[in-house]
Design a protein that fits this description.
By secondary structure, the protein is of the alpha/beta class. It has a single domain (2-106, 118-148), classed as Alpha/beta knot. It is built from 5 helices and 5 strands, in the order βαβαβαβαβα. It has helices at residues 14-28, 48-61, 81-93, 111-116, 130-148; strands at residues 2-8, 33-39, 68-78, 98-103, 119-122. Strands 2-1-4-3-5 form a 5-stranded parallel beta sheet. Helix 1 (14-28) runs parallel beside helix 5 (130-148) and helix 3 (81-93) packs across helix 5. The chain is globular, with a radius of gyration of 15 Å. It starts with a strand and ends in a 7-residue tail after the last helix.
Length: 155
């Protein structure tokens, strides 16, 4: 399975970037083809809806044809780690060979983009920086793989 994490903005915090690379490496050892790509974050004192629209256009332009899309959004479905692992496994069993997880910038994701996704997933009811979302999600993706293989990482 090919997994793409498509995010708005760059990781500026070196410690978070290093941890993201650590988890990405762990995930790749399970044979998943993981890619992390970034699109430019819109800057300036523009109307927030205009910023979201421009960022959404950039994200849409990078979506692979036929990919299953998942928006990481606070208004989405909350699930525990075993349920997330089960959902990921179901995608594999259904033959979904491309799955894209979308991470917004500091304003989140454009509502139209969110509603066009196949699944909307919330990592928590709490608010996290968009940099932390990447790290938390990568850890959960790694955890899902350990759960699916019955490894002792998940307690």
């Amino acid at each position: 399975m090919k997994i793409l994490i498509l995010a708005v903005g760059r990781l500026r915090d070196k410690a978070i970037a290093a941890l993201c690379e650590e988890y990405a490496g762990r995930i790749r050892r399970y044979g998943l083809q993981l890619s992390l790509e970034e699109v430019k974050e819109e800057a300036g004192n523009q109307d927030p809806s205009l910023i979201l629209r421009k960022e959404a256009e950039r994200l849409r332009s990078r979506l692979p044809e036929g990919a299953y899309t998942v928006a990481l959004d606070s208004g989405g479905d909350c699930c525990d780690s075993p349920t997330f692992a089960w959902r990921l496994n179901q995608l594999m069993l259904q033959g979904r060979n491309k799955v894209v997880f979308l991470v917004g910038g500091h304003l989140g994701l454009e509502p139209g983009l969110v509603s066009s996704c196949d699944w909307v997933l919330s990592l928590s009811q709490m608010t996290f920086s968009h940099e932390m979302v990447r790290l938390i999600f990568l850890e959960q993706l790694y955890r899902a793989n350990t759960i699916l293989r019955g490894e002792p990482y998940h307690k």
